[in-house]
Specification:
The chain has 324 residues and is mainly β. Strand 4 and strand 5 form a beta hairpin.
């Protein structure tokens, strides 16, 4: 009779992954930390750790955006969501997976600054700045080898999912005027295409991947619509007295909101200095301008064929005889 025997050997060092609760996105720096220790909290002195990362080579969001989002599909009573149904259709048409996987190797080191520790101690790591370049599943395979007292090795494998980290500099925005809102503020229909710092698209079918939140001076006035080609649309209204461009925040889990705003909005600032009135030469220690009533006229040209908000600030340079 043939059978398998699994043996779990006791003794020797144990290799474990340091707890990392952070949620990672494309463009983030990741430091895969592994710890190799004996039960008495010591570690082999002569040890090296190699890391192999298996990661996707293309962005799925780009492929789905180019093909266009398809409707959900029902198979034996189960609903396949639109995004997954589109991926299946693309792979059926091309005859190959959307993304292939490649291996990248690194050497982890037990040095201060590389392992978030002040000294060596069996903790190995290396900050990787340009590893997370596309979305998908990343598999980490760490292998430690040591020769102190005896020759041995330890291995550890884990996987994490990387999502597209929306970048405000790469996300394109366009707006269409909608007129004034109920409170008198101007409203626009904002169309934005979320991309990461590498230009990869978040892609359609991802209304669950971000949340539109209000920003100072403006707020969304309706739901977000998925246009099916990688772009999304939402109506945004500005506050009546706001001089800031219409903008919204795109919030992803575990990240601060990134702000996207209307690109054609322009803000001009004019500094106008004027002094008028009457002041006698024999005035001793009096203010630069004597008490009284004054008036002036300031003309500002609006060269655009639409309303422009004007805000006025008066900054006294001298108050009660003292220069501010």
């Amino acid at each position: 009779m043939r059978y398998f025997i699994n043996v779990i050997a006791t003794g020797g060092p144990v290799m474990s992954r340091l707890n990392d609760p952070q949620r990672y996105y494309t463009g983030d720096t990741i430091n895969p930390l592994v710890l190799v220790r004996y039960s008495n909290n010591s570690w082999p002195e002569e040890m090296s750790v190699a890391l192999t990362v298996t990661r996707p080579d293309v962005s799925v969001g780009n492929a789905i955006s180019a093909a266009g989002l398809r409707p959900p599909v029902v198979v034996d009573g189960d609903v396949i969501p639109a995004r997954q149904a589109t991926m299946q259709a693309i792979e059926a048409f091309t005859g190959s997976p959307i993304a292939k996987y490649v291996d990248t190797s690194f050497t982890l080191v037990d040095e201060p600054g590389m392992n978030r520790s002040f000294e060596s101690g069996g903790l190995f790591g290396r900050p990787l700045t340009d590893l997370l370049t596309v979305e998908g599943n990343y598999t980490f395979h760490a292998k430690a080898q040591y020769t102190q007292d005896c020759t041995g090795s330890r291995e550890l494998i884990w996987s994490i999912h990387i999502d597209v980290g929306i970048d405000p500099g790469k996300t394109t925005v366009s707006t269409t005027p909608l007129g004034d809102g109920p409170d008198g503020g101007s409203c626009v229909r904002m169309t934005f295409t979320p991309r990461d710092k590498y230009g990869n698209l978040l892609g359609p079918g991802r209304l669950d991947g971000f949340k539109v939140v209000a920003q100072p001076g403006s707020h969304p006035s309706g739901p977000v619509h998925d246009l099916g080609n990688g772009s999304y649309q939402v109506d945004v209204c500005s506050d009546p007295d706001s001089l800031a461009p219409p903008s919204v925040g795109l919030e992803q889990p575990g990240r601060d909101p990134v702000v996207v705003r209307a690109p054609e909005f322009r803000l001009f600032v004019y500094s106008v200095k004027f002094v008028c009135g009457e002041q006698k030469d024999d005035c001793c220690r009096c203010s630069p301008v004597v008490a009284g009533r004054y008036s002036t006229e300031i003309n500002i040209l609006n060269p655009f064929n639409k309303l422009a908000a004007v805000g006025k600030r008066v900054i006294p340079l001298v108050l009660a005889g003292a220069a501010a």
